[in-house]
Amino acid sequence: MIVTKNWLDEWIDLSGITTEELLKTFNSIGLEVDRHEAIRVPDGVIIGYVEQCERHPDADKLNVCQVNVGHDIRQIVCGASNVRQGVHIALATVGAELPGGLAIKAAKLRGVDSHGMICSAKEIGLPSIGEGIMILDESIGELVIGKNLNEYPAFNDDLIEIELTANRGDCLSIHGIARDLRAALARPLREIDNPENQDGRLGIGRILQLQHTDTFHTDLLFGAVDIKEIKTPFLITLRLALIDIACVSAVDALMSYATHSTGVILRGYPFEKFGDGENKGIITLDTDENGFAALYGKEKVSIVGVSQVKEAHFTSETGLMIIEASYIAPDVIAQNMGMNKVPSCPHYYRTSRGSEPKIDMGIRYATELFERYSSSQIYGGNIELLSSHEPRIISMSEEDFTSFIGLKIDKTTITQILKNLGMDIGKPKGSNFAISVPRFRHDIVNKQDIVEEIIRIVGIDNIPSKALVFAEANQMSDDLAEYKKTRMYRHRAAQSGFFESVHFVFNERLQVEKFGFACTEPSKELLNPITATFDTLRPTLLVGLLNSASSNVKVNQKRIALFEAGMVFDPQRQETKRLSFIVSGPMTNEKIANAGKPENIDFSAFTQLISNVVGDFELVAYTPSHTLAHPYICAKVMINGEEAGEMFRLHPQIEEEFDLAQTFMCELISDRLPYGLIEAKPYSKYQASYRDLSILVAQSVSYETIKSVIEKHSSEQIRRFYPVDRYVSESLGEQMSLTLRFVLQSDEKTLEEEDINAAMEWILSGLKEELGVSLR
User: Fold this and answer.
1) What is the chain's percent helix, strand, coil content, to nearest 5?
2) 447 within some domain
3) What is the CATH number of the domain that holds 12?
4) Less Cβ around it within 10 Å: N or C end of the chain?
5) 297-336 pLDDT per residue, tens
6) In whole angstroms, how large is the CA radius of gyration of the chain?
7) Domain CATH code at residue 552
8) How far apart are CA 751 and CA 627, in angstroms?
9) Using CA atoms, how far apart are residues 332 and 326, in angstroms rounded to an integer?
10) DSSP 690-740
């Protein structure tokens, strides 16, 4: 869960609380902080106003802008496609220093003076929020020309990512996090309880009605908005970018923002899915073919809390939209999904862990956003369907708390903590409490859970220890861990048939630059090199290994397999550790098994050798910046989703120059290699099933593209897949036949034929829709 401090401040007063105190509070109450980033726009970046924008006389893609900075007008040359007259922008003035060390200076661009730089979000250290420069609006506050951006809260914020356990679905929103802080900080929550303004609004009952035969343990609330002249305010665009949510339209942005803020599951539907505009629209709640509570209009539009039909998404910028706010208990939805696996959408993550049950708050929050940032017409009232709910009551005594905690806590303190956590406390009878658990805390079921809530708010550190324990301090340092990691990979390489090669940390600058590597900057170069051939710090281990391989060939070595672990240096002399390999010539030595004629190493065999050393990795298309690599036999190495290095065949011209047979090389970043305890993972005791899928697809489509589409449409039963055959012929033209093998398995049961067929059909439909493939 990602929040920002200023976003939280909209829900709870954080004045006087430093970021360090806030992070400490989160950790102390069990909301573990996984990441913290300070968002600070540098000084000298101000608000400017584009008074005039004209084409550059000597450049088609440049514009000459006259920008008002408050006390004068400055001429700025800008190449952004979205710069135009009459907009407020972020301007880096002369003298400002942007993230990355870029210092803004007065310059001439194609003969035109430019005094500053109109900035995009990335240029001032913010995440990308679209192409071109930032266009500011008053969602960040009153726009004062010439004012520093870092004086606005939006540009002087703290991003905090919180690691939540699966049972804390109530904290999957800004409102939910603020609700927990209320108990820790003893400050009131800024709830959205403003009554809806009905004056002059058409009632939703005129256009829509809900039909149902049962409640299905589901709460539903429907509103209506006639969308007109909508735009996404800058503040919302920025915050959605900070939390890594991409939106396809302004409506989608406001709905996503409302959901992340309130925790209420919100969906938007075109009215046309329920009515034709002349008659009243009808929404029907019924059970679908899989036993889920589903909504129907002219056809099925969604499964409550699970998914929404793609064609039922509201994607237009105008028109009548029906807003649905829903709540369904996580145990109900999890039970249904356990019995009948169906495709789900991102909202299912919140629903399955417990979304916000106060759905009227969510729909009011969303409609207020539409009213504030558009000319939309809001329909008055709501159509609702609410299920009955009996709160869980847990009875405890003061003695129970003392017994569990080991510390007597004042009765008033306990009562205040529980109330701040949203629990209702019945009138105490003597020392007994009757605690009513709120609906959003589905994880609290017994006395131990209540005690855990008290302990995390009081603070485990505030509970005195009962005994002293003397133990030796951990002597494991980062340097020792790094040494052990390097030793482990050196041993693995030796066990896999590689011989270790050790070189100086110097290279010949002329040779390194010849191969396209960036050497140390002249101002930071060696003052007294050892020899003329060791006149620069090495930027890579590959050149040293290449020279060693060439030396081995000259003494009649046929099979060469070398590795090296060592430091390399960038142009700023910053060092990083690398692990590099080279294999040339035969895969094995001459022996009876290969009749004295071993096959030469190929890319597949080299990949397996590297995998024997570093474990699992993926290869993706990649073109190296240096010239050592064969332009068509090279790949980027990805480990756990991160770029970890490169692997390639040596360029044939370089092989010939160094008298080498077919040669392959690999260089990896040591910090990206896995190291540490290997955690055991559960495996299924049920039989795996295999299915082959043969498709016809254009030869121009890469396997990486096919793989990404399959992963997007894979169900939980798909454990892995891989290509087993590729066939091209004149009869197929520009297409190829590709056979993929899928391994399907469940942790809960032996898969039946219909389960397997459903999973494969979903993948095939995705491939057809996105890549236009067909079955062979």
Assistant:
1) 30, 30, 40
2) yes
3) 3.30.56.10
4) C
5) 989 999 999 999 999 999 888 999 999 999 998 888 888 8
6) 32
7) 3.30.930.10
8) 51
9) 14
10) EEEEEEEEETTS-HHHHHHHHHHH--TTEEEEEEEEEE--GGGTTEEEEEE
